[in-house]
Amino acid sequence: MMEFTPVQVMQISKGDKEIADFITALLEQNRQLKKTVEQQAKRIVQLESRVQELERQLGSNSSNSSKPPSSDGLRKPKSLRPSGGKKGAPKGHDGHTLKMVSQPDEIKWHTIESCSRCATSLVDLPVEAYTRRQVVDLPLPRLVITEHRSVSKCCPNCGTKQHSAFPENVQAPVQYGDSWKAWCAYLNNYQHLPLERICQLFEDMTGHRPSEATLLSHLEALSVQLEPIEKVIRQQLVSSDLVHADETGMRIENKTQWLHTVSNIDWTLYNVHKKRGKEALNTNGVLPNYTGILVHDCWAPYFSDEFRFEHALCGAHLLRECQGIIDYDKHQWAADIQALLREAWQQTKKHGGLRDQLKQR
Question: Is 331 helix (H, G, I), strand (E, B) or coil?
Answer without folding.
Answer: coil
